[in-house]
Sequence to fold (488 residues):
Amino acid sequence: MANENNLSKIVGSENVLVDTDTLKEYSSDMSFVNPIRPRCVARPKDVEEVQKLVKWANETLTPLVPISSGAPHFRGDTVPGAGGAVIVDLSRMKNIVRIDARNRIALIEPGVTFAEIIPELEKEGLRLNMPLLPRASKSVAGSLLEREPVIMPKYHWDGSDPLACVEVIYGTGDKFRTGSAAGSGDLDYQWKSGAAQVAAVGPAQADFHRLIQGSQGTMGIVTWVTVRCERLPHLEEPFLIGSSELGSLLELNHWLIRRRLADECLILNNTNLAQMLAKQWPKEFETIRDTLPPWVLIYCIAGYEYLPEEKVAYQQKAIAEITGRLGLKPVKSLANISAIDLLNMLRKPSEEPYWKIRGQGSCYDVFFIALSDRLPELIKAAEDAVGQQNYPLQDMGIYVQPVVQGTSYHCEFNLFFAPNNPDQADRVRQLSTTLPEMLATRGAFFSRPYGSWADIVYRREAETTTALRKIKGIFDPKNILNPGKLCF
Fold:
């Protein structure tokens, strides 16, 4: 009780939650990570309270688990990995501190969701490079820190994009700013001098933000981020291309990005597309899925402020030459699905209920990065493994997203299942470990290992594991931040 009283002095008694229902909600998620009940939930309102929480945790050796997104959670990273943990719920920190249209940058706190930032950016003629249909409760900062792939690879120059700068409280309790935000003075001083928190590199030549991205809250607690934005187009033409095989779509995808002809550009199988579009299950879902080709490429060409019609016209001509050579046909609608309606849907958060749980009630994702020439082989191996587990292949969604200018591809398998069906849940539970293991042996790169994947990844990389533990010892020497995750 004494510890909870001290917490109340930091965040206020009304922001220390200890009721049974709340603690049960935070003790597990939709993954297969073992549930552990936290001691309590603390809800700070600003960076000063976060810093005090971290210093208190160092004094009391209390584990802290930072969370910025609302439920439902899926990957196990927000479930305590040790007993007696305090959940640091950052959802009260909702300030959109600054939108800088000239430099195309937005500075936001971790509690800001996609639904909250999108309309504010539109007022300034800006838009986000979005992940694929994030849930309405998803934190923008959380998505950036998790390095979730974005659907406009044309503007994805680096694996960390579109994250720019961050303010972080390390596990030592020290406050630190990365990138160009690390310059002299506070933010007001920097803004008055004409500076913008755009460049991710820094201070000096060190990329400190890379220590924080993908760390699942084990290195520090981020209290604001800056995100690079893009201009709203003046004219755009979205298209759909269906195919019975993936190879030709990957070839087209390569040329669309290499020649910088498309903004949005992604590939979905018919299961995932039907899952996103259907409103009723199972009939409408099955009808949409069965009328679609196995694979669908979605892309959009756009013109901006200067000569938008001319730009769209030459892009259409260039793409027509490529699709003609590949035997593909871009269309404005496919199986009664309008390209413009689909594009508009992809530029917003998912409608409720969240698309991944809308049908059967739960979903387990397995995702990795690979080169395009390896993808068909890896997808075939995954389909074989899923079939051997008697999971119905027609229920598995697949999402293929080029990243970093198309130099590699994010590939994601979405295993939809009914959590109240013990047989289905057990099959997916088995696949949650066997599928990543099998893919890793075939060259899949798991850059974001969650739950049991971490053991698969880190036991293959002894030198990386040793280096990470040394870094952890510097930035969180008492191991208070999300212990039990990754290799810590």
